[in-house]
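Chapter review: from sequence to fold.
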Amino acid sequence: MAAKRGILRASLLGAALALPCVWLAMPSSAAYAQSAATSKIGTVKAVSDSSITLTTDAGQQIAITVPSGTRILQLAPGSKDLKSAQPIALDGISVGDRVLVSGKAGEDTSLLLATRVILMKAQAIAAQHEAEQADWQKRGIGGLVNAADSASGTLMLSVGPRTIEVHTTPATRFRRYSGASVKFEDAKPSTLAEIHAGDQARVLGTKSEDGQSVQAEVVVSGSFLNLAGTIASIDAANSTLTLKDLATKKVMVVKLTPDSNVRKLPPEAAARFAARARRGSAGQGQQRQEGQNAAHPVRQPGATGAEGQPEGQRSAGMDLSQMLNRLPTETISDLKQGDAVMIVASQENPENNNVTAVTLLSGVEPILAASPQGSSAMNLSPWNVGGGTPDAGGDTPQ
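The token string follows.
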């Protein structure tokens, strides 16, 4: 089971860490005397005739001695056991590949004598990741959870102006992100019972012909905050900013980390989304007025207009999320006091107003001016909806 868990973990980790290559001197065999068995997983930074330099996912450099005769096995990404593994020579390992190394630890924690090496080629990982991105693009949906019913195995998901019914089965795989992170490796196996109204969810599955329901294969959920407002102050030294959220009127302290996705919306794109938001507000206002007249009942969510588009407006928030990774990137030094921003944030402690930015989008002044509810109709997703697979192993969005 320990080996299987290691293989599964390896299949989930697709992206190589961009860390400097460091050659470490190889130790003598005496350094491994009386050492305990251990394992390390990471990205190959260097390889020679009898050694591998490995960077673990925690950033540690490990010098690995690979004696002649060490078992080296190559697996395809997503493999669940060693049945399909193929023997390979050490010279088949390249910089950038992912490896899980079992062996004996040296006196120094940066030393390891390999007894087995399990390899996943970087090219294969990239190819699977691309295929999974395409699958999520084609068959994935994302939105806010309206309701979750464990008894019936269903979720009601708001996707723009529509409500989609999500059906789950005992075979459906669930993952849930922690309050402090949206990295997939930090997500935990979950259940439908852990999903609540107000959560955000991504679903991969087969959609019905009318688009009103989905048979879910994978559900990824998390509790995230959607903020929108004007930056009140910036502390570049501590990578934080403050803003007053339009919806709650609370002053929030937002932390930017290297994992935060900071983007800028070009003026012409912001103008298009603002126009759509204005049309949506006008349509919703008309619906409310008609609802007051007995002869003109309000259309239900998901009703379509003359051109077959959802009544009022298309899902501008989803469109923003889909185009997010094509937008120019920014850093905190590019932001300034007074900028209008939309933010998806995680919050480890709901008792305070400190949050960590998952996604920050600037250049949204026209959108917020056009939408009286602030970001309520324009929510961003915390995941890359346009590509959005969470990993290279095949379960969920990142």
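Two observations follow directly from the output. The helical segments are 2-12, 122-139, 267-291, 316-323, 365-370. The domain at 128-222 is CATH 2.40.50.320 (OB fold (Dihydrolipoamide Acetyltransferase, E2P)).
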